[in-house]
Amino acid sequence: xxxxxxxxxxxxxxxxxxxxxxxxxxxxxxxxxxxxxxxxxxxxxxxxxxxxxxxxxxxxxxxxxxxxxxxxxxxxxxxxxxxxxxxxxxxxxxxxxxxxxxxxxxxxxxxxxxxxxxxxxxxxxxxxxxxxxxxxxxxxxxxxxxxxxxxxxxxxxxxxxxxxxxxxxxxxxxxxxxxxxxxxxxxxxxxxxxxxxxxxxxxxxxxxxxxxxxxxxxxxxxxxxxxxxxxxxxxxxxxxxxxxxxxxxxxxxxxxxxxxxxxxxxxxxxxxxxxxxxxxxxxxxxxxxxxxxxxxxxxxxxxxxxxxxxxxxxxxxxxxxxxxxxxxxxxxxxxxxxxxxxxxxxxxxxxxxxxxxxxxxxxxxxxxxxxxxxxxxxxxxxxxxxxxxxxxxxxxxxxxxxxxxxxxxxxxxxxxxxxxxxxxxxxxxxxxxxxxxxxxxxxxxx
Length: 446
Ligand code: NAD
Description:
By secondary structure, this protein is α/β, with parallel strands linked by helices. Helix content is about 45%, strand content about 15%. It has three domains: about 5-195, Rossmann fold; about 205-285, N-(1-d-carboxylethyl)-l-norvaline Dehydrogenase, domain 2, CATH 1.10.1040.10; about 295-445, NAD(P)-binding Rossmann-like Domain (Rossmann fold), CATH 3.40.50.
């Protein structure tokens, strides 16, 4: 049996490890944070991800999984080691590869048998070669190591489903032997496996993420223009989506993308292209549109509130998207920072994001246990995340609970016709404001 190890128990490493165990492999997950390993060994996931806890418990019970910080002993016995550690953004926008390189060195110093090292982290084109060079430089024993690329495409909030039913598995290899080993590991997933060279595999990941970011920024740009020219983005996207070449995914306007991937992956590719003397104009535009879009709601609110000093602000949703507790690059953060700096009294609610938000603002924000308490006596409300329970709010609650029901919805959670039936003063993205009591003709399909 192949001994599989995964380095890093974050969103990618942990989900990869658990899903590899779920399809029948024996997997050891390594992290350098003891606290994470301790709670994983109790069958508890350190991150919020639907279905994950149950799979951890099952695979621990069936002894298909081990969690440890003892990387030396584990790497020594591994046949295949997946690297799933973080590649955050450096200040200049380039990718910080220190975590990946540290693992590469730890592997080199520990392995005692021939081994395939698989880079699952999102890394700039050419990184697999550097990882291989580092391993060769620090290798302690006379063993053969091959480095392969295997970028990850899961999305937070649906990570387990995305892994078990992956749209595709991309492997970048420089030998048929490595390809064969990886194909065998992924065989039980029964999904399309595409093999190519390492540089192409590294590029597939960036090109995919940057294309999705581009799609979001494009539709946000069009939504902004809709507001100026009096069109309704909802009807516009509906009209566009019937064209199969366009499709209906990733056409939701809002206050911009966040999370641990799109912001850093657009910047990293843009940085890399500039280094190579090529200007990636489309990706640059996506980044610029997104930066501005984050403050779209505040700009709208400023038209009514000259200052936020002393204003009681309700905030619904903190995470960068629903289904995750991740706050990395969440638009809520710069917006709340701005509100607090201006002296607003911020009351916030999120179904799972509060614990992480408290790490950024331990005391300055009033954290509420439910939507009603958050809205109580508020002068205005910002919606930053489209959680299901937020989309399902009884609209009369805004009128009943708030001092003045000014809603600035950054995720277009509500039907305009339903909002119009209430006294809510509603501002969303790319759609008419509801206090303009106009007769609305909406796109209808017969
Ligand atoms: P993360 O920050 O959630 O997890 C990284 C983990 O690695 C942490 O638990 C950290 O403690 C651990 N770690 C750091 N150094 C280590 C070491 N030397 N040995 C063992 N463990 C170590 O990161 P993530 O969100 O899982 O992302 C990991 C990579 O996958 C990144 O390159 C990211 O771009 C990519 N990716 C992320 C997603 C996503 O949705 N989060 C999707 C696809 C790809």
